[in-house]
Amino acid sequence: MPKIVDHATRREEIAEALWRVVRRDGIRSASVRTIAAEAGWSAGAVRYYFPDQDGLLSFAMDLVSRRVTERISAIDAKGSVPSIVLRYLDEVLPLDEERRAEFDIWLAFMAQAQAETGAGTLHAHTDTVHNQLRELCASLVRALSDAGLLKDGLDVRRETERLHALLDGLALHAAIQPERTTPTRVRQLMRQHVESLLE
Amino acid sequence: MPKIVDHATRREEIAEALWRVVRRDGIRSASVRTIAAEAGWSAGAVRYYFPDQDGLLSFAMDLVSRRVTERISAIDAKGSVPSIVLRYLDEVLPLDEERRAEFDIWLAFMAQAQAETGAGTLHAHTDTVHNQLRELCASLVRALSDAGLLKDGLDVRRETERLHALLDGLALHAAIQPERTTPTRVRQLMRQHVESLLE
DNA sequence: ACGAGACTAACACAGCTGTGCTAAAACGGA
DNA sequence: TCCGTTTTAGCACAGCTGTGTTAGTCTCGT
Lengths: 199, 199
Known about the structure:
Structural class of chain A: mainly alpha
Largest interface: A-B, 39 and 39 residues
Distance between the termini of chain A: 65 Å
Largest sheet of chain A: none
Order of helices and strands of chain A: HHHHHHHHH
Number of helices of chain A: 9
Oligomer: homodimer
Number of strands of chain A: 0
Helix content of chain A: over 70%
Shape of chain A: elongated
Strand content of chain A: under 5%
Radius of gyration of chain A: 19 Å
């Protein structure tokens, strides 16, 4: 039998090399050869794991969403409901270098996915993450509602969408102008928004 | 004397061809030749107006922001303050096909600009638009405040940032999932948010 | 040890890339 | 009419692009 290399791990390694290239030079520079160089292998090796580069792109985009999902499921839902809510939101926002990089990459993928609108595989990944995030917001608002903390007259569905939009908007601002929209400021705004929903 | 072609107009025409390419096939496909074909000229003609393609990219991105600025300044500030506020927000959101296209293109440019972080010319354009939009939000909240309509206890600065984040978040959602986040829904959410700020 | 299967590297190919360059066409004033 | 300038098209070049193919290397169960 051959030498055994974990196929899945190797694919992820290559996808992460693609991330670094996209983050550094933009998606325009993400070619098989540049990615291979970044990963430290030959182009042939990369093509062994990914026969065509559309597959690579798609896998790399999907990997981002899987990483985010992992991070979210790793959060332990302990403490008061509002503090749990804030912890989840905190985990989704690009407030440290690693997640800022992740967001930049996600932004590049989204933009590319918008081009292949409809038919493309990439757009499906956008939808998946988008829906996951909306579902997260929904469950957070629902949690507040179930705990009887939600202010009277607030509509759960509406507050879900507002929270979701605020979340993505703040994420964008934190990524685009990190020196102005600092992590501290983002957390503060998020906390104040959640507090404005409470009784 | 030579034949006279309006240089500025021609440059805008070419930039718009670039927009269509970016929108249709993504920024990866935006080469001098594809743009020339889209515009209906030879590659040489395009290169006459834009010696290098970085200049073209930069000009095209800048043109987006100039168009948005034009649209905003064209709004007449008549009527009640809240209705004026909503009209401005309405004009900035991608709620029709043309502005959705514009947003997709802007998204692609932003993603590219994030790559050349710091040094690049593109990032400066991102900042410009971002600051313009924040300034718009600030003046809208200030208008509400000056009219004495703002609810007691609300901080102008904080509500500016919240509105700005909500605006960009909703814009993203309207672009990414237009069938779910319909124009009607976006307008409704925006209206309700503004109402939540009123006394 | 050895050979089957997993893995790697390298080449070829046609086509595209940005950019430099040149020749010609289009045009308006004289 | 014709000259001088602006505008256009096209070529050349070196280098990169995705993808096919092929020959090789490595590893491990037998």
